């Protein structure tokens, strides 16, 4: 006897199960009024057909939906709504009644600020179409004309949306972080001319304090590309830190179509940050804003623990704390000491008060510190000239012929120094 294939055995074993499931499925459709039974054919097979009311709701094959055209109209309407929201949430002329202003006038206003480059003045038909809102969906003739014009002018409404969000971020950042000079689409190069592109960079008014870097994204779902965005933000921050020779802040801003309570997003971001880059948990921040409630960006900024007032830099407070001092003469091997510098000028070595720092001076433009090291009995040990490299390092020399390198033992931003 010829042995049966496994597939044949499986088919025979499942046949009864599939017939029972098939009957149950059709019984359910009959009960819900979706199909109706017709008389059996000559072979005894059961015949069903869709109820007429269900048939009427099915789109016939002769009227296909053009997804590309639909996406074009959708992206325009999203852009239109966002532009009105941005105008409403900024201190602009008649911003409280933005929805009563003809849309073409709003577009023209943002063009005058060089935020947009749509050039509506080139076509009266285009101006007319731009003033239509939901009619682009409800009126087939207007909709077809809009699609034709948008395609002809090669409009990229997603790009315009990103430009608007970038402008809005700039305006709110300038208002909230007042001691920074901001630059959009900022580009800098490192030593080997590798270019770094930053969506929005805020240069601190004090060259020693951190700069603010903003990475801005527009996502339908806020967390859809979280890890990718976090890696990108980290890489940009590390390269910028290397070029600027100081540690800076990176703020990842996600604008999203989602709305509601974003606490879960912050929780998930912090989990990823701690898992991937724990050493940057103090200087990489996450801001998420619904495009329907743009005004809440200020509340998001308040979550960020960054000192806003930095004009009066307290350099004595800056150098206070524990350091490792590496010192050497010429090409000799380096020596190391654990240093604790107090705000009152007392200078401890391995827990013992050895010197008092006198005649302390600071030149902000050169980041230069000078002081005299005086022994407790009153004799002068040396005069030190130092330069602040970044928040963790100070380098210089003394009059005894030693080169000096102070490295902070516990690196943290000065905003966290009590």
Key features?
single chain; about 425 residues; alpha+beta; Trna Endonuclease, Chain: A, domain 1; 4 domains; 8-stranded antiparallel barrel; 5-stranded mixed sheet; 12 helices; about 35% helix; disordered C terminus
Overview of this protein structure:
Helices cover 36% and strands 27% of the residues. It has four domains: 18-56, no CATH class; 67-155, no CATH class; 182-302, 3-Layer(aba) Sandwich (Trna Endonuclease, Chain: A, domain 1); 315-416, Beta Barrel (Lipocalin). The protein contains twelve helices and 15 strands. An eight-stranded antiparallel barrel has the order 8-9-10-11-12-13-14-15. It is an alpha+beta fold and 418 residues long. The chain has helices spanning 6-31, 52-56, 67-88, 103-112, 124-130, 135-138, 140-152, 157-176, 226-244, 263-276, 297-302, 315-319, and strands at residues 35-38, 47-50, 180-189, 195-204, 212-219, 249-256, 284-290, 321-329, 335-341, 346-349, 352-363, 368-375, 380-388, 393-398, 402-408. A hairpin with a 5-residue loop joins strand 3 and strand 4 (195-204). It starts with 5 loop residues before the first helix and ends in a 10-residue tail after the last strand.
